[in-house]
Amino acid sequence: MKPRKPSRRNILSAAADVRPDDGLDPRFDHAGGRRAGKRKTLQLCREAERTLSAVLSGECDDDVLRELIVLSVVPAPNAGRLLVTVALPASAGVSAEEVLQRLLRASGHLRSELAASVSRRKTPELAFRVVTDGPTM
Known about the structure:
Layout: H1 8-13, H2 35-59, H3 63-66, E1 69-75, E2 81-87, H4 96-117, E3 125-131
Parallel strand pairs: 2-3
Antiparallel strand pairs: 1-2
C-alpha cells in the first residue's frame, strides 16, 4: 500500500505563519547553488587571469597594452563571459577609452591564447574594464 501524501492545504494549516516556501521539499531548494560548478568557474577565472597577464606583459605587440596590469577576472554573468579588470598606470599617458579600444582590437588574439591554455569546449567571451588608479610597480 502506498503512503498517502499530505495535501498542501493540510501542511499550510499547521503553520503559524504562511510563507511562500512552506510545503516545498527542501531537497529541491537550490539557494546554495552547485558547489562543483562554482569551484570550476573560479578555477577558470584564475587560469584566465594568469594567461592574460602573461600575454599582455610579453606577447602583445602594443606598447600601451604591455603596461597594463590584470587585477581580476570574474564571471559576468557566468563562465561563458569573463569580465577582465585591468589597471592603467599613470605613466601610460593615454586615456582609459583609448586603452579600451586597443583591448577590443586585441580581444581576438587574447581569446585565442586563452583557448590554448584552458581546456574547454567553448572559449569564454572577454569583456574589459579599465581602472585608471591601479597599483604602480
